[in-house]
Amino acid sequence: MRTKTIAGNWKMFKNLQQSEELILGLTKALDFSLGSVKVIICPPFTSLGLAGTLVKGSPIALGAQNMHAEDEGAFTGEISPTMLKSVGCEYVILGHSERRQYFQETNESINKKAKKAIASGLIPIICVGETLEEREKNITDLIVSTQVRGCLKEIGAADVEKTIIAYEPIWAIGTGKTATPQQAEEVHLLIRKLVGQLYSWASAEKVVIQYGGSVKPENAKELLSQPNIDGALVGGACLKADSFATIVKSATLS
Fold first, then answer.
1. Catalytic option among 98, 130, 168, 185
2. Distance (Å, rounded) from C-alpha 254 to C-alpha 34?
3. CATH H superfamily, domain 5-253
4. Is the pLDDT of residue 193 over 90?
């Protein structure tokens, strides 16, 4: 049985004071039984230390939005997996579409980071997804399959089973558009079948596949009720405690 996993990607929002307010508000808003649902917040690097202290002993886990593929070195402006571990991170988002678009990250570089994250004891949340143009050309399956294959290259079955894959249709990120539950389910099933082909169906059944792309309180329950949607990678709606808590609650009911 896969665990529903809700992660909040804060992107480049919230200074220290705002981060503290949001986390305290979130811990207060999560005053219901989470059951087996996992909740992860991914603040900006500047707030990770504070967040690690505030979520300690709570049901909220800590993740980062990116990392470098080396433990240390002359890489000005970068953050290493060992640094993330030292502030309490358990997860790291890799290959978000904004990283691919604005920072030219490739399947190869994401794969390198994923392998380093796993070796460092971090669980990667690997993002894949197609653009609107690619969807309109009916090549979604090709694009997503190529990304999954590239990002999981040389990662063993035991590690893949603990990895999270987030399907994010790029055309639905920050646009207010959302893939229908049926469209999202189709791609989630494609990803699960591909993992089954690359590894085994037993491994595929264990992989958590999240949906990301304008997930809101209004659509969360229907999306999370799909058989192959195991959670959500939430953007804008995670920046307010009440809306994020409502999405988490939808996961407990789905």
1. 168
2. 12
3. Aldolase class I (3.20.20.70)
4. yes
